[in-house]
Amino acid sequence: MAETKQGLSRRKLLLGFAPGLVKEQEAPASEELEPEELTQGVEALEAGDFAKAVDLLRPFVKENKGNVEARAALGLALFKSEQYVQAKVEFDRLVYGGRRDKLASLYQGLCLLKMDKADKAADSFRTYVNPDDDPVQDELYAQLQRMASGSSAEEVSQAVEAALAKKS
Predict the structure, then answer these.
(1) What's the pLDDT tens digit per position in 28-53?
(2) Which CATH number fits domain 10-167: 1.25.40.10, 3.40.50.300, 3.40.50.2300, 1.10.10.10?
(3) What DSSP designation does 26 have?
């Protein structure tokens, strides 16, 4: 896999930006360098240029539907650029496509909150189980209780996003 100047692979950089969104796997020794579109898309995502990341990643994902890393990066770029319906579609594909990525269900729930669908968001959040990530999981469960007692979707979303931001 391509190495950056700091010695981290693009996959590790993406995982650092959204840890746990894609399961870390060792790349086969014969794996070729990542395609330029994916590399540039992840770089744009890391730099906070979410519109550019979407523009680069969307056609790549369309041509490489099975590339989980690219789909996760596209979903995150769409979420960060406030395109919640489209982001939810990408996270749905990860969650329901047989790839129960831990954070995909969390971001799926956040998208639903942003779309004012708190009941569906709560269902999505309940599928998030990550014993390796106690602070985020603890915050999520606290927010589920707040949702049940009438907290606004925006308050819950902000609290969960803050917990995710502390993690990365």
Answers:
(1) 433 445 788 899 999 999 999 999 99
(2) 1.25.40.10
(3) P
